[in-house]
Design a protein that fits this description.
alpha+beta, 2 domains
């Protein structure tokens, strides 16, 4: 009788051990699977690498130009042969970065981002913004197309210089940094990470 009771007791203990081993195996499997999923879902790209060139700041400038031409004889202007135009154009200047050149690394809860120098990506007159204030054209000396093109190019360069002088590049950097913070914030907890921006 005692021997039969001992066998039943051993069977119960063996059954409990098997159940515990099965539960332990299930827990280990789930934990390992979660770790596997976590490692497989680790994000290695933030998303800005494929943007290419991106304007992060625009400036609008109005430039006034005076174009004059006259017939000359031995280096002296001949009276009544002067042509003169006074007109203005609005220009839009866009500055930004080549995002493909941006490099970054994460180490010890610090993200270091290296950016290329900000640059002007485009500058052009705004369609329909031309305004003519004064027109005086002489039949003896007209302003040529080449002179007009040179004048517009000069106005564009002046607009670029004024835009840069008024903080175009600084604002482009500030906006790019805010954009990059947003990108990194979608992956990292910004309460735990510090971001440092370095310009080449």
């Amino acid at each position: 009788m005692k021997e039969q009771s001992s066998k039943i007791k051993n069977k119960i203990i063996a059954g409990l051990i098997i159940v515990l081993l099965v539960i332990l195996a299930v827990i280990c499997t789930i934990t390992g699977f979660r770790k596997y999923i976590s490692s497989q879902n680790k994000i290695t790209k933030i998303g800005f690498e494929n943007i290419g060139e991106l304007a992060t700041q625009s400036a609008y400038c109005t430039e006034v130009n005076v174009t004059e031409a006259a017939k000359e004889l031995w280096g002296i202007e001949i009276p009544f042969t002067q042509s003169k135009y006074i007109y203005s154009y609005d220009f839009v200047i866009k500055a930004g970065f080549d995002f493909e050149q941006i490099q970054w690394k994460e180490e010890n809860n610090k993200i270091t981002v290296t950016l290329p120098e900000v640059k002007i990506l485009s500058s052009a007159p705004v369609d329909g913004s031309f305004k003519l204030f004064h027109e005086q054209e002489s039949i003896f000396k007209q302003v040529t197309l080449e002179e007009n093109i040179a004048s517009i190019e000069s106005m564009k360069q002046q607009a670029e210089e004024e835009a840069i002088g008024n903080g175009l590049f600084e604002n482009a950097k500030t906006n790019a940094e805010a954009m990059l913070r947003s990108f990194f914030g979608s992956v990292y907890d910004m309460n735990e990470y510090e971001i440092e921006f370095i310009y080449k």
